[in-house]
């Protein structure tokens, strides 16, 4: 028993609509991914400011956080880890916002990001040596508190490395843009230099 023309037409419309929907979803996903890549420095700075603070909030109550500020001890207090992340992300985000194409390619953005990230990595590494060199003494106690401390230090370190990677990729991308722009300008300049000579040759040929 064969299919009628109406059923074939309905099936064709269905598969055509499905294919258009798949292509639309793919285009939207590609645009969203491109937006994430373009805005990576901003998203990373926001994550750097929020994630360590959220982890510290899980480790301590608000009362303990205030006591960490008043009775700060480099060997035991963890309040400085999210504070460093907040300052680091704020400085990098401000520099990124103030820089244009040439400065993003080779200039303050990459340099300041490297300085902030490397210095914060050194500080976090030194602090980790003191913190993990002694038994855990948090209000949660035991393995959970120690695992949360490890997560806090790892989060800050990974985000610092992420800043370096994103800044380097952004710098390379801006250098490629400037190179293409320079090639385009040189091509336009060459055309402008050749065009008057071509016009002069045409005039000479017409006068002969």
TrEMBL record:
- Source domain of life is Eukaryota
UniProt keyword annotations, A-Z = Membrane, Transmembrane, Transmembrane helix
Spans traversing the lipid bilayer: 21-46, 78-98, 110-130, 150-168
Q: What is this protein called?
A: MENTAL domain-containing protein
